[in-house]
Write a sequence for this structure.
């Protein structure tokens, strides 16, 4: 979805390793509206596409604010964002998309965040304050220096006890996710965004709750990408057949062969690299497709998934 051209107005250090970017419309027109929990995709050099949660308050049409953690071992998106953009630069973006919506009528919203996973909850807390709804936050970081947006969240905390900061590198315990879920009042909705270990613990603790009350957003994969190789991928439209070698992903094989592939997270989370499957059985490693969609074997996330059969035919 093509969105507006954005003009970078300012950068700000939010915490150790975390920088926020405030964008305005390059044309001066109001920006497309968004809801709490939404993200935008930014188009970076070398065909990189990266998704970032919108941190600012829903209803604001004059700016988009995102925050980026300097991640080690990534494909270059965070490194570029931390080293290159300066005020006055322009970037293309998608329209806002919300795969992590806030249920605004819940009597209580309980947020569990780890690291940069705090970003969607800043927007959600602001929205709930506007609605007069209650919320609680459990925020886990390695140190206080790594805790972004604590001042803003404390300012939003009307009860004075909604923000619970857990600095695990300062002899503080991690959030007891099982206890948080167990003690959640009836009817409350629970949200989690953070590293895969936290999300796995959250999903396990919430297994007995109605699924409509449980919400999670991943920014890292729950399993390793398929790199065993040893199969062929046939591209039905072009007629090309490529060999996927051991140690390489399907995405890398396609890119090395000059096949234009849109991708973003490279971890099977965002759905950007989804391709139709005509023949073969994918080795699904993503967290985007539902169990039913995986069982149908009609789509594959080429960034992380592979093939369980000797040949995989893609509608490309």
């Amino acid at each position: 979805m093509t969105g507006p051209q954005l003009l970078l107005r300012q950068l700000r250090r939010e915490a150790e390793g975390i920088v926020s970017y405030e964008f305005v419309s390059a044309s001066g027109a109001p920006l497309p509206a968004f809801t709490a929990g939404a993200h935008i995709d930014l188009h970076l050099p070398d065909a990189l596409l990266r998704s970032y949660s919108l941190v600012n308050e829903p209803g604001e049409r004059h700016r988009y604010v995102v925050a980026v953690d300097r991640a080690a071992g990534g494909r270059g998106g965070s490194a570029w964002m931390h080293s290159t953009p300066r005020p006055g630069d322009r970037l293309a973006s998608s329209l806002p998309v919300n795969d992590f919506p806030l249920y605004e009528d819940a009597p209580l919203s309980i947020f569990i965040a780890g690291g940069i996973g705090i970003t969607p909850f800043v927007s959600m807390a602001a929205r709930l304050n506007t609605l007069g709804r209650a919320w609680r936050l459990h925020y886990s970081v390695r140190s206080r220096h790594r805790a972004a947006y604590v001042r803003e969240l404390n300012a939003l905390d009307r009860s004075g006890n909604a923000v619970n900061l857990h600095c695990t590198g300062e002899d503080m315990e991690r959030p007891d996710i099982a206890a948080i879920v167990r003690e959640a009042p009836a009817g409350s909705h629970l949200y989690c965004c953070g590293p895969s270990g936290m999300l796995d613990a959250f999903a396990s603790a919430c297994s007995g709750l109605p699924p409509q009350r449980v919400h999670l957003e991943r920014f890292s994969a729950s399993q390793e990408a398929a790199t065993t190789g040893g199969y062929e991928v046939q591209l039905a439209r072009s007629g090309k057949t490529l060999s996927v070698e051991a140690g390489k992903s399907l995405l890398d094989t396609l890119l090395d062969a000059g096949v234009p592939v849109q991708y973003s997270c490279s971890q099977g989370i965002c759905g950007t690299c989804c391709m139709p499957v005509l023949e073969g059985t994918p080795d699904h490693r993503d967290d985007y497709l539902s169990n039913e969609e995986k069982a149908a074997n009609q789509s594959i996330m080429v960034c992380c998934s592979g093939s369980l059969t000797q040949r995989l035919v893609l509608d490309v």
In short: The domain at 108-218 is CATH 3.40.50.80 (Rossmann fold). Residues 242 and 257 are 8 Å apart (CA to CA).
